[in-house]
Design goal:
Blueprint lengths: L1 H37 L4 H17 L2 H21 L7 H25 L3 H17 L15 H10 L1 H24 L4 H4 L6 H9 L21
Helix pairs in contact: 1-2, 1-3, 2-3, 2-4, 2-7, 3-4, 4-5, 5-7, 6-7, 7-9
């Protein structure tokens, strides 16, 4: 019994640590994203700010991922209100909470069934950018990025600032995908549907948007649920 209790205690302690780490990373990400929206900073700041959000989409089930994104959006809203960048209204707060939560729920659901695809997550991020622009951020979360370089300026001028948001989301999700290969390479093949030696091939296909694994049925989950 003592051994069983010790094992259960270690599991609970690990879950607590994982929850604290997730909360801390989401808070830091929201702070960086608020900084990216309110100041003229390099695009890399916004990319890092989105990173914890896509980690949650990658490793958590749909409900937990959406709650993580809602918390991220609420922290983002609070910080932007403190800096006077958005109006402190209930409708604005709801948009800041609901838009990332819906994106995360969709992304986590797709990840469970067809795999983690940065391209899909980047495209669906358009909805978040449009929602936040309507809620008081007319230039989106990356207001200073288009002025960072001539290339980003040309992209923003020709395709719109929202496309810069897609670029940031795509790069951030790609980093999650690449780091996930290193972190999870030792996991059993039955979890991912591939041998460990084929993880590089899997990550490349996911990065370019080919989310479905041809060796697996579409309706069989591919991502390891880290939390219930």
């Amino acid at each position: 019994m003592a051994g069983t209790w010790d094992s259960a205690s270690r599991v609970r302690f690990g879950r607590v640590l994982r929850g604290l780490a997730t909360a801390a990373s989401l808070a830091a990400g929201a702070q960086l994203s608020a900084y990216s929206a309110a100041a003229h900073v390099p695009l890399v700041i916004g990319i890092i700010g989105l990173f914890p959000l896509f980690v949650a989409i990658r490793v958590y089930r749909t409900r937990i991922a959406s709650l993580c994104a809602a918390a991220w959006g609420l922290l983002l809203f609070v910080q932007l209100v403190r800096w006077g960048s958005v109006e402190p209204t209930l409708s604005t707060a709801l948009v800041f909470v609901a838009a990332p939560a819906c994106h995360a729920a969709l992304g986590a659901w797709l990840t469970r069934w067809v795999g983690f695809s940065p391209l899909v997550l980047g495209v669906t991020w358009f909805g978040v950018e449009f929602s936040l622009s309507a809620a008081g951020l007319p230039r989106g979360l990356f207001s200073g990025a288009p002025e960072e370089t001539a290339i980003l300026g040309a992209i923003a001028h020709g395709l719109g600032v929202v496309f810069v948001g897609f670029l940031a989301a795509y790069v951030s999700a790609t980093l999650v995908c690449a780091i996930g290969v290193v972190t999870l390479a030792g996991a059993p093949a039955r979890v991912f549907g591939r041998a460990a030696g084929n993880h590089v091939t899997a990550s490349v296909s996911q990065i370019i948007g080919f989310a479905q694994d041809p060796d697996r049925r579409v309706r069989q989950p591919r991502a390891p649920p880290a939390s219930r």
